Amino acid sequence: MAKIRILPDALASQVAAGEVVERPAALVRELVENSLDAGARHIEVHAQRGGIAMIRIVDDGTGMDREDAMLSLERHATSKIRTKEDLGAIHTFGFRGEALPSIASVSRFRLATREKTALVGTEIEVNGGKLMAVRDHGGAPGTVIEARSLFFNVPARRKFLRTENTEFAHVEQQLRLHAIANPQVAFTLTHNGELVLHLPATRDMLERIRGLVGDELASRLLKVEEITLHGITVSGYVGGPGMSRSNRQMQTTYLNGRPIESASISYGLREGYHTALMKGQHPVTFLFIQMDPQAFDVNVHPAKKEVRFHDGNSVREAISRCVSRTLEHAAKLPTGHAPARSAALQLAATSEPAAVSARQEQFVLPVAASSAPLRDLDPPRPLPSAPAVSVSPPPVALEKREAVSLPAAPRPAAVPEQEADAPAPAAPNTPPEFRIIGVLQKLYVLMEGKEGLVMMDQHAAHERVNFEKFRRALETGGVPCQRLLLPVTLQTTPRDADLLRQNLAALNRLGIEIEPFGPNIFKVETLPAFLKTDDPAAWLDQVIEELSSLSTKSSSLRLSEDAIATTACRASVKSNDVLSIPELQGLLKDLFACEMPYCCPHGRPTLVQISTSELERKFGRRAPG
Ligand code: ADP
Ligand code: MG
């Protein structure tokens, strides 16, 4: 007897539901996408007990007539695509016609919908996939979809649900993702009857972001310089150097409005941030990619979270360019004379985000605005014993520094106009007026600046200086090297030997003259000139280690940048090195001649400030607030 059987429809839906709706947040994703596809301007999401007991979505979109409402619950019933060609270029969020039947098969489901011009609407009830009732509905135009008792009929799946709090956190995160991409739509979220999010419609993306992440973080974002490369347009906001998170929750990226994750994008971000991001940290981004829907496939992931790009490298390159340009530009521009917070308000007041001038934009500082940029970072924390201390952009940022122009630095397309708008440059590389007070723990240089106490991490600062010196040398023909009196021979593992052989040229450019000297043995003749080390072999070991940790997935550019960062780090003054005042002054001057003075090549801050007003608050001389 034949063993293969076609599954009954209800069972097939439950199987599909396992993939499409794995948890309440997935319902929110599917239903909000439907509402957006239906042109809704207001979307309400109500959840009870994490969304497990109930999820209800109310929208004011087009609604459906009775025939469509009935059809929408059939599997593979969709109004969004018709032909195979449509599938190759999807313009809507939905296209599979799976969500509604899937949800209806694993919950107590109710759909009430009415078209704007219809006298009466339709209400349909389905229980675990079984049609219970169809009746007239007298509600407002738009659609209400309610799913109660999720997985009541699929206990195996219910077991995979987490606590109500966890599930609700996912629901909220999901809604945030949609809300960011659709500022023109008003969103409301309630949990157990309590209002959690209320986001009025706005034309300003930054205002929407502020509504979601708060003033403090929003004011520190950089507006990316919109670019189009290989037909890929990138826009949005990103965190400046040193602003990062230990997980990817704040790394939001969108493709034609759809929140997605993609390795190409992550690599692009890594590359774009390169030394402005600490190892193991993730950037804060609200990035929007627009491209021809024919150039990627969304139909690869049940939750449509991932996409397959036909040309992932172009995407990576576009992202990386856009981010590095934005960071470079932000670090180079004079920061004007307004504090970051009021600048952010100016940004918000602009109804056309595109019309924000470079002058306003540049007020958003690369490192930090009012409070605690270092809350984003782990080491080093400012004054751990006094967590309430907040740090502000160093007053040094008020100085106009002339950009150190690197041959490789791409110039933003819109620069001439913006520069015409910018204030006249001050003397090049003028270091800010700091009075050095002393050195704390042989590491933190305490200084008095115009706006308060400024602290410099001497090691991080020197690393940045060395890093840029190395990189410039590299770009202009190689790092000067010192010849060793006695060549060093390195005995390596076969794997490291391979690695070294592949990178001989890159190492040479770094001032390390190294050549094979036998099986797995290498001879080193020179080292970078400014490296101070008593033990070249140990130093080389570290470089090899660094190389091997990077070799996978890194582009060669990144590889040499990281190698430079390592070299710079090893060659830098350490926390215990005692520097004289003139040496410290020299370091400060060199730091401010850097392209990106506010963070070391690993993305840690070089400078933090406690403003005078912050000190006054601490000492009770001024009311908080
Ligand atoms: P898909 O979105 O992939 O088409 P769904 O199962 O999510 O599949 O929805 C099926 C159809 O029901 C949609 O194509 C759309 O025509 C209709 N629909 C679903 N939700 C709404 C809504 N909120 N407003 C109007 N029409 C809707
Ligand atoms: Mg859908």
Provide an overview of this structure:
- The longest helix has 21 residues, at 312-332.
- β19 and β20 (444-449) form a beta hairpin.
- Helix content is 34%, strand content 22%.
- The protein is elongated and about 90 Å long.
- The strands form six sheets. It has an eight-stranded mixed sheet. Strands 9, 10, 11, 13, 14 and 16 form a six-stranded mixed sheet that branches.
- It is an alpha+beta fold and 625 residues long.
- It has three domains: 9-80 and 94-199, Histidine kinase-like ATPase, C-terminal domain (Heat Shock Protein 90, 2-Layer Sandwich); 205-328, 2-Layer Sandwich (Ribosomal Protein S5, domain 2); 345-479 and 530-625, formyl-coa transferase, domain 3, CATH 3.30.1540.
- The chain starts with 8 loop residues before the first helix and ends in a 7-residue tail after the last helix.
- The structure holds adenosine-5'-diphosphate and magnesium ion.
- Residues 30, 34-35, 38, 59, 61-64, 72, 77-80, 94-100, 143 line the site of adenosine-5'-diphosphate (ADP).
Q: Which helices and strands, and how do they pair?
A:
Elements: H1 9-20, H2 24-37, E1 42-48, E2 54-59, H3 66-71, H4 84-88, H5 99-105, E3 108-114, E4 121-127, E5 130-137, E6 142-148, H6 155-158, H7 164-181, E7 186-191, E8 194-199, H8 205-213, H9 215-218, E9 221-223, E10 227-229, E11 232-239, E12 244-245, E13 251-255, E14 258-259, H10 263-273, E15 282-283, E16 285-290, E17 296-297, E18 308-309, H11 312-332, H12 340-349, H13 358-361, H14 415-421, E19 435-440, E20 444-449, E21 452-457, H15 458-475, E22 481-491, H16 494-502, H17 504-509, E23 513-518, E24 521-528, H18 536-550, H19 556-571, H20 581-592, E25 607-611, H21 612-618
Parallel strand pairs: 1-7, 13-16
Antiparallel strand pairs: 1-2, 2-6, 3-4, 3-6, 4-5, 7-8, 9-11, 10-11, 11-16, 12-15, 13-14, 17-18, 19-20, 20-21, 21-25, 22-24, 23-24
The structure holds adenosine-5'-diphosphate and magnesium ion.
Magnesium ion binds at residues 30, 33-34, 94, 99.
